């Protein structure tokens, strides 16, 4: 009977540890991001939970160059950092949306689909804190976070070298793939401690029954 109990305890502990190992290697969790809850500046219309349309070359856009009400001020980036390296006069005006993520973990991934429509030298971009990343083609955007912490994330479009020529950036299906919390490690250690403790308990009972 004691042998059967020990076998059951061993099997149960192994099962718990196996579940813990599966949890440790489980895939990340994908969270849909509600774009309508992001802050916006300039001509962002229409906008819904799953899609936002950002426009340039219209009367409702915001100026660039820094200072209150500018795109750089809105996005908390360095004035002039939206100027493409190949431009003559730089960025002039545009539109953007932004969101602050306060609990990013190493390995979290931001991604979204987009379509950039322009017949001009206009520019579309993503800002991650003070970094500016150009969006150069209509392909999914993916960014993997390599450090934990808070991040200001912006998505925008600007007129370049002039203030005419309408362009459009359509953003959709924004998601954040978040790595699992490391609570499964604690669960595995707890299961291991439980199994060792039960083995010792039944070991003492076996010794007592045998008269040792």
TrEMBL record:
Transmembrane segments: none
Signal peptide (UniProt feature, chain positions): 1-30
Keywords assigned by UniProt, alphabetized: Signal
Lineage top rank: taxon: Bacteria
UniProt-recorded name of the protein: PEP-CTERM sorting domain-containing protein
Source organism of the structure: Dendronalium phyllosphericum CENA369
